[in-house]
Write a structure and sequence with these properties.
Blueprint lengths: L13 E4 L4 E4 L6 H9 L4 E9 L11 E10 L3 H20 L3 E4 L2 E4 L5 E4 H9 L8 H11 L8 H13 L6 E4 L11 E2 L2 E5 L1 E6 L2 E2 L2 E4 L4 H16 L10 H9 L4 E7 H7 L20
Parallel strand pairs: 7-8
Antiparallel strand pairs: 1-2, 3-4, 4-14, 5-6, 8-11, 9-10, 11-12, 11-13, 13-14
């Protein structure tokens, strides 16, 4: 339970703590902002495997309760993270399935191949004709309507994400999606080659994102500005925007070393076995028969 949720953009479950008489939220990430506090405290590497909760819709790749793993690695960046993640996914595939070759949802891929690095902005423009860094909300909505893509929310952050998801479904991988726009990566370090993008990376296989990592933002001034931008989204009614965390900003003011963070979960397994996420969970939450 947390008094402010952090580490992801998602709608939390809200509950009440009777003893303290305060409202709290079930966490939406595996302790991202807490693990980064440990980086500042001098821990060189941390990880946790645990449960996360998101009060959102259900799909073949989404449930409201799921298990994730997150690690944080001091004095490493997103390039170090990508190398480690590729090696880790290949080991998982070999140890669990005895192969690195899979056919899933009409996609055929080999995790043992070289992983292409796909630039978020360039690929989206190539596949949709829209430059998400400069396009207006009106132009983005028009393109989504042309493509027949349903979208939630009308702010630029959500529209950008909807355009990318249209593109993502057509990519078999294995690949790393890199350099996400700053507006959709509020905890990621700025890309020095283009300050409108970040040093974020996501593994892509079978048209899906199967992990999320980045060079962690450790500039307190930049982080404060991004939290303020997220607060504006919250104030406009965006339930998935990230809640500001002033204590986290204070920690960054004391100093957090350059850090790479990464998280992934049950979705990877469900994709590799070509099943829905719900089918791979023991006792997933079900609506009682008397309420159907």
């Amino acid at each position: 339970m947390e008094t402010t949720t952090g580490g992801a953009e998602a709608t939390p479950f809200k509950t009440h703590h009777n003893d303290f008489d305060i409202d709290v939220y079930l966490r939406i990430s595996i302790g991202e902002l807490w693990q980064k506090r440990l980086m500042a405290a001098g821990f060189p590497k941390t990880f946790e495997i645990g449960r996360a909760y998101r009060n959102e819709g259900t799909s073949p790749e989404h449930t409201q309760e799921f298990t994730n793993m997150e690690f944080y690695w001091a004095y490493a960046n997103y390039n170090d993270g990508m190398k480690l993640v590729r090696d880790m996914y290949i080991k998982i595939a070999k140890d669990v399935f005895g192969t690195t070759k899979f056919t899933v949802h009409g996609h055929t891929f080999d995790l043992g191949d070289e992983w292409e690095k796909i630039d978020y902005v360039s690929k989206t423009k190539e596949m949709t004709g829209v430059d998400v860094l400069t396009a207006s909300e009106k132009d983005m909505k028009k393109k989504l309507d042309e493509l027949g893509v349903k979208y939630d929310g009308d702010n630029k952050e959500r529209l950008t994400d909807s355009l990318w998801k249209y593109c993502r479904k057509q990519i078999s991988g294995p690949a790393f999606l890199i350099h996400h726009p700053t507006m959709i990566a509020p905890l990621s370090k700025t890309n020095p080659e283009n300050i409108m993008t970040t040093e974020k990376f996501q593994p892509l296989i079978a048209g899906s994102e199967v992990g999320n990592g980045y060079s962690e933002l450790n500039d307190p001034i930049d982080q404060q500005e991004r939290f303020l931008a997220q607060q504006k989204l919250i104030d406009s009614g965006d339930t998935e925007a990230m809640m500001p965390d002033n204590e986290f900003i204070e920690m960054l003011e004391y100093g957090m070393p350059p850090t790479c963070g990464f998280g992934f979960g049950e979705r990877l397994f469900s994709i590799l076995v070509d099943k829905t996420l719900r089918e791979t969970q023991l006792f997933p939450l079900m609506k009682p028969k008397n309420l159907e």
